[in-house]
Structure formats: structure tokens, C-alpha cells
Amino acid sequence: MPAVRPPVAVTPMTGRLLVSIATYNEADNLRPLIAEIHTYAPHADVLVVDDNSPDGTGRIADELAAADPRVRVLHRPGKLGLGTASLAAMRYAIDHKYDFLQNLDADFSHPPRFLPGILAGMATKDVMIGSRYVAGGGTENWPKVRLAISKTVNALVRFLFRMPVRDASGAFRCYRVSNLARAELHRTRSRGYSFQQEVLFRVHQTGARLGEYPIIFENRRHGKSKVNAKEAVRSILMILSLGTSHFFGLDRLTGPSKK
């Protein structure tokens, strides 16, 4: 396993922080995850965006919200996808005037112990990425093929989108909400795995300063992975479409809205 920096000491942030978690069948993970989030970011509000999980994740979220005013729940009628769940959390953060939005996966693949280091970076950055591909970062028990595909996609994104980051595909990120508000999120085309790259690019186009903090990406503790090959291929094709258009100046992805 690659070496990683020791966790940064817990320090309060200046500004309101919302941590978003998109859930679908994460009943075994939700309680311990929120407890661990509040261990490292006790000042944070947590928004659970649940897609009507048949295993009762939404009910557990409601119980946690009833017991702790820092927990909020957004129920959706069905499995609408990670991209739209992330957009819903971003809109919630904008509408409720938070200063920072921190996103992480619900399956413990993004360990909350790295939150203090990511959040500390927001003192000088507008987006901080929990990065697998900077010095000190890495992955745990990933198949070599999956790791090779991930690194290849990230290299392609750096080339096509001209963004100075090593890990543009990870969802473990903190955003300055004022930049999200200027990013014309309503124009986002991606709904699958390519969502992370497209949103990062749209925020980067607002002039956002991007930073990375090393993390170890871990396999989920409970439940079944939602990764599937069909969606992965669809997302790669979306990245190629968006990135090629931007690279050749055919579509800047941002600009005057047609709304």
C-alpha cells in the first residue's frame, strides 16, 4: 500500500459546511459513516440523498435526522443515478447558502479520516480533491485492469480539458459553493461516471483554483458495488465527446445560456 500522510488534526472551518452522501441500498454503512464524518468534521451538516432504497436506507436516514439536527434527508422517487443526486446536493447547498460542499461516497471507499486534510486545503483553493494519484495517495485491493483504465481516463481528461489535476474522476471533493453557483450546472450533460470530470471542468471554467490531497481509496465495507461495464463505456464516450469538442474549440461547455 502506498504511504499516505497522517490525518490532519480536526480544526474548525470558517463558513458553513454541508457534506453530501448519495445512497442506494447502503443500510449497513449509513449510521457508522455519518458518525465517522462527525468525528472528523463535527461542525458539518450532512445531507443524505436517497433514491428510495429498498433496503430501508431512507428510513435509517430519517431516524438519524430526527435524532441529530445536523442530518438532513432528501428523498427521491427511485434510482435516478449518482450524477443527478450530486446535482441535487449542489442545488441544495446553493439554495441553503452553504459556503462549502463536501461530497463522499456512502460505502466507505472515501474514508472520512481524510476530511480534515481536504477541508484544510479550502483555505487557499476553491475545489479540493481527495486524490489517488498524487504523491502519498493510492488504491487498496483494486484490480490492475481497473487501475490502468482509471489512470488512462485521467490522462485523457488532462489532455483534452487542460485541467492541472491528477485525479479528475474521484467523487471525494470539497467545492466552494460560490463557484458552483457560477458554473451553469443546469447545462451538465453527464449523468453517469463522466459526471465528475464534466462538473470539475465547469467549475474550473469559473476560475476556480484546484487542489489535491492524497487519499487511499478503499474497497467498500458492506453491500454491493454499483459499478457496471455498460455505464463505464457510456461515460468514456461522453468524456471523449465533451473533451474533443472543447479541445478543438467547437463547444466551450460554458458561455451564454439558452435558457
Describe this structure in words.
There is one protein chain. This protein is of the alpha/beta class and 259 residues long. The protein has a single domain, classed as Spore Coat Polysaccharide Biosynthesis Protein SpsA, Chain A (Alpha-Beta Complex), CATH 3.90.550. The chain has eight helices and nine strands. The strands form two sheets. Strands 3-2-1-4-7-5-8 form a seven-stranded mixed beta sheet, with helices on both faces. Strand 2, helix 2 and strand 3 form a beta-alpha-beta unit. The longest helix has 19 residues.
The counted number of beta strands is 9
CATH topology type: Spore Coat Polysaccharide Biosynthesis Protein SpsA, Chain A
Going by CATH, the homologous superfamily would be: Spore Coat Polysaccharide Biosynthesis Protein SpsA, Chain A
The total of helices stands at: 8
Reported for the largest beta sheet, the result is:
7 strands, mixed
The structural domain count equals 1
Q: How does the helix and strand content classify structurally?
A: alpha/beta
Q: Roughly how much helix do the residues carry, as a percent range?
A: 25-40%
Q: Under the CATH scheme, which class?
A: Alpha Beta
Distance between the termini: 49 Å
Q: Write down the Rg.
A: 17 Å
Order of helices and strands: EHEHEHEHEEHEHHEEH
The CATH architecture is: Alpha-Beta Complex
How are the strands of the largest sheet arranged? 3-2-1-4-7-5-8
Quick one: overall form? Answer: globular
Strand content: 15-25%
Contiguous uncertain segments of 5+ residues: 254-259
**Could you tell me the mean pLDDT?**
87
